[in-house]
């Protein structure tokens, strides 16, 4: 401001106006403004959120008595002094094992549900990535981040409920400060639970595993019937062991979605077997249709599906 504000020969006098919360100190004689931050911090971030300070300097011409008002606007620049924070300590998602690779399986970081940063500009913008988990090394290759800004998670490898039912995925959020060395990060755990899908067929019981496999040896069921026996007296036939089967996908949810098991006689010898035997499709009860003459048949072999 043109003029001399200190004695002797003073030509102007300066007065500080609209000094909200007394953030500014005026040294009128030297025409300087100072920040009054004693005992407090000037913070652009919440909760104070001070982005600008505006004061007015009243200049009085001591020679002619005229008054001029000067506005001084102080802009507070942001520094990257806050770390991103996830809104939840842990996140969860359940995925069916039959979900195709490339499917988006998690969008839970959208909006304000993911990580937030109270800094301003790039210092407060968040991007996401998958971090290596030494306690679950397979987790970081099972999924990937589809968009670093959205944090949407995509399935990268096929799931198999029978091999693995849970993955612990470490998700990292970092701000986008212009200088990578000043960026701040935070992490959270995304728990991925694998749901059983209908990808396996039923197996007959009892199951005796083939060596070093998860496959069952074929089961042989046996029944003996008297020659020329009346079907009404022997039905249902006493098969040993009882014909039973279970679905290998044992935990499909909800239980109402679990498929039922149906039984059939696929083939048999001699070819006349359909005249003599029938199998209940749901209970697997084997029944005799008419008496069997040993002079015609001494043995039947049926393949059950």
TrEMBL record:
One of the GO BP terms on file: sensory perception of sound
Matches recorded under SMART domains: CA
GO molecular function: calcium ion binding
InterPro entries, sorted: Cadherin-domain_protein, Cadherin-like_dom, Cadherin-like_sf, Cadherin_CS, EC_dom, EC_dom_sf
PROSITE patterns for the chain: CADHERIN_1 (PS00232), CADHERIN_2 (PS50268)
CDD domains (alphabetical): Cadherin_repeat (cd11304)
Ranges for domain Cadherin: 87-204, 217-304
One family name in Pfam for this protein: ECD
Any Gene Ontology CC annotation: stereocilium
Cellular compartment(s): Membrane
Major subcellular site: membrane
Keywords, sorted A to Z: Calcium, Cell adhesion, Membrane, Repeat, Transmembrane, Transmembrane helix
Protein name: Cadherin domain-containing protein
């Amino acid at each position: 401001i043109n003029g001399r504000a200190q004695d002797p020969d003073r030509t102007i006098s300066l007065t500080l106006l609209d000094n909200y919360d007394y953030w500014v100190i005026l040294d009128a004689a030297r025409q300087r403004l100072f920040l009054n931050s004693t005992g407090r911090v000037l913070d652009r971030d919440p909760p104070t959120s001070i982005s600008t300070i505006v004061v007015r300097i009243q200049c009085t011409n001591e020679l002619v008595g005229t008054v001029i008002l000067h506005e001084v606007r102080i802009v507070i620049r942001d520094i990257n002094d806050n770390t991103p924070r996830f809104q939840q300590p842990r996140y969860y998602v359940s995925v069916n094992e039959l979900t195709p690779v490339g499917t988006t399986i998690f969008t839970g970081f959208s909006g304000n549900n993911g990580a937030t940063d109270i800094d301003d500009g790039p210092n407060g913008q968040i991007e996401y990535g998958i971090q290596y988990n030494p306690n679950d090394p397979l987790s970081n290759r099972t999924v990937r981040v589809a968009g670093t800004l959205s944090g949407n998670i995509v399935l990268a490898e096929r799931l198999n409920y029978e091999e693995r039912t849970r993955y612990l995925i470490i998700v990292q959020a970092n701000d986008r400060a212009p200088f990578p060395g000043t960026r701040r990060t935070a992490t959270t755990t995304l728990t991925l639970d694998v749901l059983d899908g209908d990808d396996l067929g039923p197996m007959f019981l009892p199951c005796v595993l083939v060596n070093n496999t998860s496959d069952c040896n074929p089961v042989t069921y046996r029944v003996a019937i008297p020659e020329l026996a009346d079907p009404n007296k022997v039905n249902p036939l006493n098969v040993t062991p009882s014909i039973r089967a279970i679905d290998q996908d044992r935990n499909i949810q909800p239980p109402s979605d679990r498929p039922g098991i149906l039984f059939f006689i696929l083939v048999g010898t001699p070819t006349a077997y359909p005249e003599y035997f029938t199998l209940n499709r749901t209970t697997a009860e084997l029944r005799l249709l008419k008496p069997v003459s040993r002079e015609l048949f001494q043995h039947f072999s049926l393949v059950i599906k």
